[in-house]
UniProtKB/TrEMBL annotation:
GO terms for molecular function: ATP binding; transferase activity. This is Ethanolamine utilization cobalamin adenosyltransferase. Keywords: ATP-binding, Nucleotide-binding, Transferase. Residues 6-167 form the Cobalamin adenosyltransferase-like domain. It comes from Leadbettera azotonutricia (strain ATCC BAA-888 / DSM 13862 / ZAS-9) (Treponema azotonutricium).
């Protein structure tokens, strides 16, 4: 075993003292979560600036959820059973697919600029989370039985952000 006096710049710690290339899939996934955390924080600032404190609080829950994903991945621990916005994740998932029953919306909405900056930003976050989910599938999906919890967590987060969009759209005159 080779002992290094200094960590090479192109390497990073995967777990413990195990060094891997910064292009390693798990490192890429962690980077995506880091970017999503920053983007959610920007959305929180927008919501607060618009006086949308309930949405700001909900986005804070999304930020905590992303941090829980990061912790579960880094520590190789199971993703915990969490709620968002006071609802079970499966309930959010179901409501996000039945917007008529959940929000009174006649059809699945197609976000546009008339829905305002908060819907636009949350929809952007939803799309970015979907990218993260696809990355998780590419990285963890090929490892039989590994990290299905993180793939599901990303899918449910996408549903939760769509749920927030629909809630805001339904509340907008």
């Amino acid at each position: 075993m080779k002992v290094l006096s200094k960590k090479p710049e192109h390497k990073t710690h995967l777990a413990g003292n195990r060094l891997v290339s910064k292009s390693h899939g798990r490192i890429a996934f962690r980077g995506m979560i880091d970017v999503l955390e920053a983007e959610v924080l920007e959305a929180q600032v927008l919501a607060s600036g618009l006086g949308e404190e309930w949405y700001c609080t909900c986005l804070g829950e999304v930020l905590d959820y992303l941090r829980a994903i990061m912790i579960a991945e880094v520590k190789s621990e199971p993703f915990p059973s969490l709620k968002l916005f006071g609802l079970a994740l499966d309930e959010i998932h179901q409501q996000s697919h039945d917007v008529k029953a959940a929000f009174g919306l006649a059809r699945h909405p197609l976000p546009d600029q008339s829905m305002g900056p908060l819907v636009a930003r949350i929809n952007y976050l939803r799309a970015r989370v979907r990218e993260g989910e696809l990355l998780a599938v590419r990285i963890f999906g090929r490892l039989t039985g590994r990290r299905q919890d993180l793939i599901t967590a990303m899918n449910r987060l996408s549903s939760a952000l769509w749920w927030l969009c629909c809630k805001k759209i339904a509340a907008t005159p």
